[in-house]
Structure formats: structure tokens, C-alpha cells
Design brief:
The chain is mainly alpha-helical. The protein contains 21 helices and eight strands.
Length: 510
Amino acid sequence: MKKNINHMSQLLSAITGRSRALQLQSLIILLIIISGMLISCKKFLTEELQGTFSTSTFYKNDKQALQALTGVYNGMSFSSFNNAIWVFGDIASDDAVKGGNPGDQSEITYIDQYTADANNGIISNYWSFCYEDIARANTVIANVPAVTMDEATKNRIIGEAKFIRAYNYFNLVNVFGRVPLKLLPPLTQEAIHVPLSEVSAIYQQISTDLTDAASVLPVSYTSSDQGRITQGAALAMLGKVNLYQGNWAAAVSFFQQVEGLGIYSLLPNYADNFNLAHKNSSESIFEIQHASGQVPFIGNALNQWFAPASDGGYYFNAPTQELVDAFEKSTTGEVDPRLDATIGRDGQPWLNGDVFSSAWSPTGFLTKKHQQPLSEVSSSLKEDGGLGYIYLRYADLLLMKAEAFNESGNADSAKANLNKVRQRARASFNGTAPADLLNDITTTDNSQLRIAIQHERRVELGQEFHRYFDLMRWGKATAETALGNKFNYDTKRYFPIPQAELDANQALKP
């Protein structure tokens, strides 16, 4: 090889001069070196992954096991701007549009219009966000069993991690449909390159994880551990998972088990669910935790995403007129009190003693939930909110139970659960509620009750990121009626798998 290089350099020298030949000789040698590196690259890339903290150096005691679990909890929080479940839950539905500055986060618009492709950054980031947390959960589930520690605490840690893995997969399967079901730490090629699983198989794994969690998690915690996942949360999620699959009797059974614990109830005032003073209240079944002023950062960034610019916010997730109109009004003009607890509208009280101005939003409205007054979080630290995000409330459970009862032909039980939610809304009225506002539902007709329950879910859970998922599970006719001509259920039911995953995951190659 050296002789060939010298001969080539002599020929080049004769043509171009000695100095240039030396340059080219050096270049040829460099290319040969690179070629050798490329030949060995395949072997290098198939080596098992190693991290700064390996299982042999970290998972040594209960303290480290709990530290790892804390990372799993933090992985599902809204401290990360990549947690875009609100984009799918609200903006992809008929309840909200992107909002914000027209050029800011423009890729959200494609999700709103159902024209997003596999290269959409919001979709890609949310996929990575969920799988990062799944990887954290998988690492805990794989390594904690070998830690020498109290068995009850060990089982509880594993149960919490399994719940969080199930929660992430539940969101993934409802956004994307078929996804890779990764159940091991991402340390081997087999654990990283995983093919797509059928939706039914993903639901089965979710149910298995939640069943395991429910069997080991406590009913409640002491104040120092408040906010951790409980048995009630696992049972409620099992009910929701069965509801989404149309298993009505199983769903009712799980919801009744939650109620049998005797610790959940509706707060007297609806709006209290969304203020800091009632964090982790009796109505909260599963609440993702945040705290202001912490190092490392664990604040709630929704406080900034949804706030008006005058408060240091970006005014995204702007509610639609259709959502505002969905709230009931009396004949004399009084409105369902949940409207002004949910949405800022022109001339009505806002936070900080202000009166809301429609000029703050491109639709004339902003979501009021998930926001805190400046007395709690200053405008300069707006993204560092302390509010939790309540994914499962007792009111939600009552409405899901009402739906399951109605679909299984038990109209009386359906009405009883539905009317508990309406009665609390009526009791939240400031003063005496008008006689014709939020009265009990009396019909026993299956179709009319279904419409009433679906309506109640929209207004009770407005701007809590559930609407799109409800529309999708209610099926083609309901979804296409709500979303209009821009949405075709047969072709747009699920969002595309990110191109980055298609490129990286060898098991997805054709």
C-alpha cells in the first residue's frame, strides 16, 4: 500500500508540483485511516450501551431506588415543553386552536388541521418524551427487585413505575395507535429495536401493569409522600382502560372499587380544583406533581404556555366559541359557573384582580385552568408554576361510570352518577342558582342519555386535555360531526409515527 501511495505521489508531482503532491499524499493516507475506522464501526455500534451510572454502581440501597423512581415521576411532568398532551387533547379537538403568535410553534397548526406528517417536530418531541419516561420506568422495574430493602417498599416502587409506564403507553396508543412495546431498559439492540405491537396487545400490557400496581400500592400516604400514585389511581385507570375498549361491566366494577375505598369526593366548589390551596384534594385521584422554586427545576410550564402576554405568557391553547357556547345558560342569561372557572372571556373577572380582555387572545378567549396569579408565580418566573395537573378527578370517574352504565342498559344508575356532577356544578353558582340552570337529567332514553353524558364531559372537563380522546373513542360519526370536513376518521384517526423513529428503529424497516 505504501509503495502504491509513493508511486501515485510521484505521478502527481510531475503534473502539479511537489507541494501539491505532498498534500494529496496526506489526503490519501487520511482516507485509508477513515476507511479502517468505518470497517470497525459496525462492531463498535453493536456494543452494549454503557452509562455513567450503571446498575452495578447505582442500585445499591432503598435511597437510590427512590431517587430513580423520582426521575420516573419527573419524566411525565409538564416541566418539559415536550409534554404536548394538551396539543392533542385540546387543540386537535373542537375545543381549542393553537393561539399564540401566528409564527410561534407553527407546527401545532398542522396538528390542528390534521395535515401533520412524520417530520412534525411536536409529534416527534412528544414521542421521545413518552419513551424517555418509559425507559426510566423500565430501568426501575428491571433493577429494583435486586436491591436489598424492605419488601413492601420495594413492591410499591415497582408498582408506581408500572403505573407510570402504563400511563405513558395509554397516551401513546391513543395518539399513534400501533407503537413499539418496549418493556426492557434500552441497553441492548433487542430492547431498542422493537417492532410495532397491535393496539390490543398494548392495552393488554397496560392492564397487566395497572393490575400489578393496584395489588401493591397503598390506599393513601402520609403527608410527606402525598402526591404519590395510589391504589385508587391504579383502579381508576383500569376502569378507564376498560371503558375505552367498551368493556362496560369491567369498567363499572373498577370504578366501584375506587368508590369503595371511601376517600374520594367532589369538592363543594368546582373552581377549587384548579387552585394551589386545594392541591391533592379529595377529588384528585391521579395528579401529576409540580413545585415552584426548586433545583432541579420541577415547575409547571403550562402556567406560561396558556397565560396572556401581559402576564408573561404565550397565550396558547385558545378556546373556541363552540366550547364557550356548550356551557348552559338560563333564560335570564346566567351561565353554568364552570364556564368562568374554565375560560377567560371579555369583561369577566380574571386573575390578579384584572378584568379579561378579548384582545389577549386570537379567539377572544383563554383557558383559565392551569394558571396561577402573579402573587404565587411572578411574570419573570412564569414557567415555574406549582399547580399539579389532575389527570383523573372523581368527577371524571362519575361521568365514565355513568357512560358505562348507560351503554350496558342501566339508565337509572347512569342518571344518578351524571346528576351528581351537575348538582355540584349548580351548587358552585355564586348566589342562588336560577331555577332553569343545570337541573337533573330525567330521560331514560339510551341515545338521549348518551348525548347528555357526552355534553357533560365536554363542559366538566373542558381544557383538561380529554376532549380529543373522547371524540376518537366515541367513533367515526361523533368525531367527524364535531371536527367537520377537515377530519376523516378512517385516515386521520391516529397521528403518524415520527420519521426519526422510523429511521432509527431497525425493527420498523420494510
